[in-house]
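Hi L.,

You mentioned the student needs an example of a multi-chain input paired with its predicted structure. This one should do, with 882 residues in total across all chains.
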Amino acid sequence: MNSVIFLTIVLLALSSYFFGRKKAILIQSNKRLTALPKFYGYYLAIWCGAPAFLLYALWSIFEPSIVRFFILSDYSSQGLLEGELNLFYEKVKSLSRNQYSGELTAELQRSAEKYLNFRDIAKWSKVVIVLSLLIASTGYAYTKISNNTKTREPVEIFLKGVFFLSSLAAILTTIGIIFSLLFQTIEFFQVIPLFDFVFGMHWYPAKAFVRDASEALDPSMYSDTFGAVPIFAGTFFIALIAMCVAIPIGLLSGIYMAEYASKRLRQYAKPVIEILAGIPTVVYGFFAALTVGPFLKDLGLSLGLEVSAESALAAGGVMGIMIIPFISSLSDDVITSVPQNLRDGSYAMGATKSETIKRVIFPAALPGIVGSILLGVSRAIGETMIVVMASGLAANLTLNPLESTSTITAQIVVILIGDQQFGDPKTQAAFALGLSLFIVTLVLNIVALSVVKKYREKYE
Amino acid sequence: MNKEERLIKRYKAEKRFQFYGKAAIFMALLFLVVFLTKIFSTGYTAFQKTWLVIPVNYNADLLYLDPDKKPTTEDINDADFYEFGIETFITLDPDASEDQIMELKKMFAFTFERELKYYLLDNPDSFGKTVDVKLTASDDLDQVFKGNYPRDIPENRRRASDYQLKIFDKLNEDGRVISEFNASFFTNADSREAELAGIASSFMGSLFSILVCLSIAFPVALLAAVYLEEFAPKNRFTDFIEVNINNLAAVPSIVFGLLGLGVLLAVFGLPRSTPLVGGITLSLMTLPTIIIAARASLKAVPPSIREAALAMGASRMQTTMHHTVPLALPGTLSGTIIGLAQALGETAPLILIGMVAFVNTIPGTPMDPAASLPVQIYIWAESAERGFVEKVSACIMVLLFFLIFMNLGAQLIRHKFEKKWN
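Structure written out for the whole complex:
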């Protein structure tokens, strides 16, 4: 039914375009047109399609909850819990589809009949109302174009409005992220005190087993379960290992590319290094787990060291390789944009090339380089698959790179993989971790972008 | 220290510094080479499949069919090929004990019933005769044959027993073990058995997700970029939108997964594990990438084009739609392809919205549960069976192929269609 209405609207709008254009050509025979004939067509098509489609969309979004309200209003006086009402409503729905297999009660039967009834009324009234709106608005637009009013301006204003709405998509996404994270996190902190989460030393979300929805929450059950310190420490530790690999290699190759490399080397080596950034992270994860982890373990054995097969070193090291191109490209750009006269001045004083780089160019480019490193750190903190596959999933509080640790992202995946139960502290904990990840990366990005921007302005 | 010595020292420092730079580039390239070699050397064997060719007697008695009458398709479909298969396997070693018969059976993929049946359906003339039939080898023997599996470790730590290896070697000597191109890797859905698992289901999942992502992200991003570049007034709100887009581009992908879970699944009640939800989540993620690329190419269109159109009496909207946007389209398209390539390799958000489910059917619409290629890599990498290691590498090779293909396409569009304004 829905797709039939949708198609009808689209078809009517399309045909009214041709109708409007034809009308314009008719008008043209005795009057001067106010715009090109196709604008008459667009005008009629927009008035035909847009209001009807808007109403149709809103109706489809709100219909289920209104029907639900009417069905459940019969039972609102019985003092039932939210969960029980939900369960009852699901039963009614499945009964109306003839898929119900549980115990039949008179109440259920009555409600199911009422439900079907309501759905029928809603369906037909939707068809009638949407179509009558369509006819009314098209008629209005038709009288307008018959009177030869302006059509180009309204059409362009409408299009501009659509453009503006599209540009709001980014804001809506941000609001959606904040809303979904914050909403769950607030519920989480009603059960687990904020202090326990931020300063607690033990993280065992598996202890918080899934409980029955009707059972009351017992906060003491979760004490000492959701202490995020080991997770935060693990995240920064692995990011630190990654940066120990990425900064020297990335920075040195960026400097070499910018200052020494011949045009040919730049032309070939730069895109090849950037391939490293294009490889999906799950592939790095597989490489770290299959090759690097066992390799480090064997190496450790031959040196008499105890190395976990899922060591922080393997995950962090491979993550570092992934970040090399981010740092090398950005620092390359930053160094290239240092003005030539700084170099010339240094050479004129008799400095060698490396001395110029170390004493003049590097300090001048430092803010930009710091910005690129901060962007790299934010990448490392937000990276998920490498850690999930190559590092451990148990949250150890350790500073030994040969042991396994876990990160924010890995814990989110561990908690949310498989079936989730909303309203469970364990699920909410993942959202709380997500919020802290969002805030940390947001701050890093804002700082990094403003540093880079300020630096650019300085030399432009 | 005199002047000369100091100069020599400084020149040495110069040489050293250059060496560090070269070493860093060399290291980065070395990582790439090691990485690709490792993936290719473990993965290429997955494109070959091992078959065992064994003599099968399509005897009417063994199939409980009427020997005098040619069986119809229904007769064959109703016949019991399990017992028949066991009887056939016994002919490989007539002295086999009960346990050894089970081991013989385990030398073949569990699809042997179907394979025996389909052979007879395709070749009805072989009824009542003994013919050579090609059966899929189990993944343990497949790995042994490809040399990925050591034979010299003690039997109790090995998946293939001494007895199986003995029979296998005998078959091999008779030239009855053959290796052919593994077409089922591309046509089968996922399976718990490594020898039967394929990427068709995850490929379709990826394809649907990318199509959904493209059909949402491209129009919205293009229109948003046009608004911001051509129409937006310079005010605080426009700045706010810009800051938002830049920050969104740097939000970790897993946060988008949480958004998909918390809003698309929990609030809007869209179906879990489907490419529809995956595609919408990915489109929100690629949106900023495409907007940034589209704005850059709109900015690159010289103002003289706009001024010329305006001078000819075109409205702002006509100037934009007829002149600026078409000129900016190649750059936008290549940015879109690069954004889609990123989305294609994305794993974490899809895991959170449940696209990690085991799917052994090939999805037909974006509303069917599916995995995607990167998620398939993750699922297989987590399974313990030896046969999956080469499958993972092969799946990575397929994924990398598509990524390279897309990036080359983006380059091509950029070089071929983009105008250089000088």
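You could point out the following to them. Chain B touches chain A through 84 residues (CB under 8 Å). The first strand of chain B starts at residue 48 and ends at 57.

Best wishes,
N.
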